[in-house]
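Figure 2 data, in text form.
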Amino acid sequence: MNLPNSLTLARIFLIPLLVVVLLTKFEGTVIFGIGKELVGAAIFAVAALTDWLDGYLARRRQQVTTFGQLMDPLADKLLIIAALVSLVQMELAPAWMVAIIVGRELGVTVLRSVAFSRGVTIAASPLGKVKMLSQVVAILLLILGREYLHEFFILGQIALWVVVVTALVSAADYYWRFAQAGAHPRVTDFEAARRWATEKKIPGDEPAAESDRQRIASRR
């Protein structure tokens, strides 16, 4: 288990802790003398930081693995969904806005999974990255704005609107790219797609790779 994958797992383990801190009613709303909103915001900020750090370290150390490629986006979605659902329960975010955001996350995940099963990888779009950053900012501002600066809450609501708009636009972009990729699938078998996606180009192996593609094509 390398360091980037360990950070991804740490982010997953922080998710239930975040939910407990945000939704549990502590006496005096403090934890060890610190307001639970501050503790919750700190946990979320650390978890969000690991999202950037694990990707940076994986590229810097050349430790990109299949496990990391699968678990990193899953950990991101679990963190954001858990935080947004907690905000709804705390009456800090409208349920309909969170439903749109969560629905988009699930829909895009399904589209990318189906595309992968056809041997096509749909890369993350710039809009998706803007949405992710907006989500982090919105969640932090909404948590902190509950008990501290009211201006934070107003800014958090504005950021949440940005998230909804970018979520809808990026979802349409993903669907368009999925439709384009679906018109020319590389493979029609999931196991073949998995081998296609994880195949490493090694000098001298081109003939074998070509024969694999011929076998895949013969199944069509």
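Caption note: Residues 1-71 form one domain.
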